[in-house]
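Predict structure. Input: DUF2007 domain-containing protein, 106 residues.
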Amino acid sequence: MLGGINNTLFFTSFAGFAVMGLFIILLKWAFSRGSSLVEKPKKIGDEDEYGLLKVVASPSNFIEGEMLRLKLDEHGIKATLTQTKSGPKVLVFEKEISVAQAILRS
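Output follows.
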């Protein structure tokens, strides 16, 4: 009671504003973009759509590709195995192509 007046309606209206503010914050968080916990579906591209990575091997399946990738990894070459429109490919950086090809031939 402030100043001898019953302020129940006054405090109730502020509680309503507080609840609405909480709803606004919750909905802004729930519908915000860019911070989703759900993984986006992967896009399969052509061999030339991987930026600085270039194709060093074209295995017939993912098991063979993973074996090639691990062989390169043992020799310190960073390699990526990915699915392209023309099948699985092992990709490395352009400056390491000659070294990677020599390792895979041995």
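Helices lie at 8-30, 62-74, 97-105.
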